[in-house]
Amino acid sequence: MTAIAVMTALTGCGGGDSVGTAEERATTTARAAEKGARDEVTPDAVRGDVRSAAAAAGTGRLGFLDTSKAGNPCRVVGSLRTEDVPERESVDSVLAVLKARGWGQKKLMLAEDTNQAWQLVKNDWEMILGAGKVPEGSGIVFDASGKACGVPMPSRPAATDLTPPEPPALP
Length: 171
Hints:
It is a single chain. The chain is α+β, with helices and mostly antiparallel strands and 171 residues long. Helices cover 39% and strands 27% of the residues. It contains five helices and six strands. It has helices at residues 2-11, 16-39, 43-57, 88-100, 159-162; strands spanning 61-64, 75-82, 104-111, 116-122, 125-134, 137-146. A hairpin with a 2-residue loop joins strand 5 (125-134) and strand 6 (137-146). The radius of gyration is 27 Å and the shape is globular.
C-alpha cells in the first residue's frame, strides 16, 4: 500500500496535474483580463494621455472642447495655447510622451517651418496632433476619435422615423 502511495506521488497521478492545470488556467485568464483592461481606450484615458503630453511641453494652457453634445462620445479635442509657436523640442517631448503611452506614429502629415501635423494611432483610436500658428493663435491641438470607447454610442432613429408617410389616397 505504501509503495502505491509513493508511486502515485512520484508520477503525479491522483489529481496533482489537475491542480497545476487549474492554477495555469487561472493565471492565463487573469493575464488575458489584465491585457483586455489595458487595451481598452476610453475618452477619459485619452484625456489623461493628452494631459500628460501637454505637461511635457512645459508651456501653455490646456483646455478641452465639450464634444458630448456633438453626438460623438468617442471624440476628444484638446488645445494647448501658447504665446508663440511651440518650439520643436516641446513638440518632440509631447510626441515622446504619447509614444510612451501607446500612441504609434502612423505618418507625418505636414512639415513646414512653423506648422507640423502627425497622425497617431492607439488601438481603435486615431489622433491628429498639430502644432504651430493659426489665425486664432499658437499652440498644439490634439484631435482624437475612436470607434469603440467604452461608452454607449448614440442610437440611430428607427426606420419608421425616417420613412415619410405615404400620401393619402384619393377617393
